[in-house]
Amino acid sequence: MFELTGLVCWRCGSSLAELTLPLRRLEECRSCTAELHVCKLCEYYDTSVAKSCREPVADEVRDKEKANFCDYYRPRPGAYSPQSREQTEAQPRLSDLFGDDAGGDSDGDPMKKLDELFKKSDD
């Protein structure tokens, strides 16, 4: 039915050879705890087509990284792709620009920082 050869986690790339197929809907990677019955690990997942799925009759799944109930799901080997070189090189520059916590401001009021940034000089 399904082939285990080369099956790896879509998020971390760890081998999934110890798991039995078909994967349960809530099966998780033992290394990174990523859910595995997800679009990103499916052989029909393709970002170049509508709804990112090559299966024409499958219902749309909005979150491609969360477990779903798709009956057409078939895990595919080679679903893992490491970060691109551009992403790896850009991260330190983003951290320099926005600080180590680029997702939020941990030291101060963001409105105060905006006011300081755009304050008018009193000449």
Q: Can I get a quick summary?
A:
Helix content is 19%, strand content 0%. It has helices at 85-98, 110-118.
Describe the protein's architecture and organization.
The protein has 123 residues and is mostly helical. It has one domain. The chain has two helices and no strands. It is elongated.
Features:
mainly alpha, 123 residues
Largest sheet: none
Mean pLDDT reading: 82
Percent of residues in β-strands = under 5%
Q: How many strand units?
A: 0
Large-scale geometry: elongated
Assembly form of the protein: single chain
Following the backbone from N to C, one meets helices and strands in this order, namely HH
List the helices and strands and how they pair.
Elements: H1 85-98, H2 110-118
